[in-house]
Every structure is written in structure tokens, then in C-alpha cells.
Write a structure and sequence with these properties.
mainly beta, Jelly Rolls, 1 helix
């Protein structure tokens, strides 16, 4: 069953990792460092990506060094600068300024090669419209561009306009069904601007009672199954750091709720969004 983890001081310890009772494919950590501090980790069963949310860091993946990663003052100030680390790598993040990073991981048995994803290599898709209260922009950090260089991990940042819905029309991805749907676990980490903003997260399917959750700045949502539309309160911009991990393959195929098929043509960019995740 899906669940929400309310914001807390995780003291740089993983928020979600192996042994979680909802997700068994996803790793997620938030790390805050002051200048000259460092954080080291190794994930024997996960590939991962270090996404600089704020500040600048040097990152070493085994013996490969990536210098001065991070070009933005906060998540609202441009595209992310990130470094991908393969399965079982030793990763050291050393802060050059006061820094916040997100670490997203996905279970895999395929060891690949580290790489840097610079801000100009992040792909954006524009979805919905202000008039239909569905406008959001999705910035793919690990998306189609990295096919063949990443195993089963997809990572993106979503920015929703005030008062708009995302994950809409409602869709799910919890069953492996050929070219109709894939089985992907998902994690959302929410931020709002201003920080006193809030939103709503619904989860439902045909077999269980629906869940309706209030989301606040810094909360994290774990999704194993079900349709999962999201809303952002009027007067506040919404942000969702998104991790998707495929159980059997990397490309995501969403199954939209057939009861809302008539909405598929009502909002611009829906098909482009679907294609960007495949």
C-alpha cells in the first residue's frame, strides 16, 4: 500500500532503501553539507544518480572525478547538474559551498559506466495548459537520452503551476503487460514555493479503498501500485523530485484510467509526455 513519509531531519541517512515495506526497488536520500564537508556512500545492489539541488560539489565515482557539479542556487533556478554512478560504486560527494543533493537509486544487476548529466543535457517536456489547470513541465535528468547508459532508473524534476494537477489524467504502472503497461515503482519528493504551500495526492485502484493525502514541503510519497493523480494548491508552485524504477525494463508505459479516456485529447502534451518516458 502506498504511504507518505512526513518531512523530518534524516541527518544524511537514507530515507528509503532496501528493506522498506512499500518499495523494494528504490533508494532515496537527501544530503545536506556545509562547505568542505563530504558524504560517502556505496550501494552494492543499486545504480544511482547524485542530483545537486543547491550549491556546488565535487563528486568522485570510484577513481573518476567530476569537478564543480552544480550550477543553481536552488531547485527553482534552472536545470539540475548531476552525476550517475553504476552498481556497487564508491561515491564521494565533497561540498564546495553549502549544498543540498538528492541521491536516487534503482535496484539492478547490470554494471555500467559513470557519467555526468549537465544542465543542457536535461530534456524538458511541456504538458497541459493553464486554462485546463493541468500545466506542468517535466525535466528528465535520466530519461531517453541516457538509454543504453543507465539500467532501469528514471529520474526527473516536475514543476507544476499554482492550482494545477499533474499525473493527470490518472494513470498507473504496476503491471507488466506487453506494450500496454509496465511495472514501475515510483517515489515523489515534494517541495512548494513559497514553502507554506501544500498539495493533494490521491491513490486508487479497483480493489482497494482510495487514499487522499495532504502533501507539504519536504514530504516523500512511496507508490507501489494504483492510479495516482496529484494537485498543487492555488498560489503555490509545486515541485516533485521523481524516481521511477522498472521491475523488468527501463522504459515506462503508463496505463491511463479508461474511465477518463475522453480527457486524453483535452490536454496538450500528453502523448509527448508518454513518449519521453519510454
Amino acid at each position: 500500500m502506498a504511504k507518505i513519509i512526513r518531512r523530518y531531519d534524516n541527518a544524511n541517512a537514507p530515507i528509503v532503501t532496501e528493506g522498506d515495506d512499500t518499495l523494494d526497488l528504490v533508494h532515496f536520500n537527501l544530503v545536506s553539507l556545509k562547505a568542505d564537508e563530504e558524504h560517502r556512500y556505496r550501494l552494492p545492489r543499486h545504480e544511482s544518480v547524485v542530483v545537486v539541488m543547491e550549491g556546488t560539489v565535487d563528486i568522485t565515482v570510484d577513481d573518476i572525478a567530476f569537478q564543480s557539479v552544480g550550477k543553481r542556487k536552488d531547485i527553482w533556478s534552472g536545470n539540475a547538474d548531476s552525476v550517475y554512478a553504476p552498481l556497487d560504486a564508491t561515491v564521494t560527494v565533497r561540498a564546495k559551498t553549502n549544498t543540498h543533493v538528492a541521491i536516487a537509486g534503482g535496484l539492478t544487476d547490470e554494471k555500467l559506466t559513470s557519467l555526468r548529466i549537465r544542465p543542457d543535457e536535461v530534456d524538458m517536456v511541456d504538458v497541459g495548459s493553464p486554462e485546463t489547470h493541468t500545466h506542468r513541465q517535466i525535466f528528465h535528468i535520466l530519461g531517453q537520452r541516457q538509454n543504453g547508459r543507465v539500467s532501469r532508473l528514471l529520474v526527473s524534476e516536475l514543476y507544476a503551476d499554482p492550482g494545477c494537477w499533474s499525473g493527470y489524467p490518472p494513470h498507473k504502472h504496476d503491471t507488466e503487460d506487453g506494450d500496454r503497461e509496465t511495472d514501475h515503482e515510483e517515489l515523489y519528493h515534494y517541495r512548494f514555493f513559497p514553502e507554506n504551500g501544500f498539495g493533494g495526492q490521491a491513490v486508487y485502484d479497483d480493489g482497494e479503498a482510495p487514499q487522499n493525502l495532504l502533501t507539504r514541503n519536504g514530504d516523500t510519497f512511496l507508490l507501489d501500485k494504483g492510479y495516482h493523480p496529484t494537485s498543487t494548491s492555488p498560489g503555490h508552485r509545486g515541485y516533485i523530485f521523481t524516481i521511477l524504477v522498472g521491475r523488468h525494463r527501463r522504459g515506462l508505459i503508463q496505463r491511463f484510467d479508461p474511465r477518463h479516456d475522453y480527457l486524453m485529447e483535452a490536454f496538450p502534451g500528453i502523448q509527448a509526455m508518454r513518449e519521453k518516458f519510454r
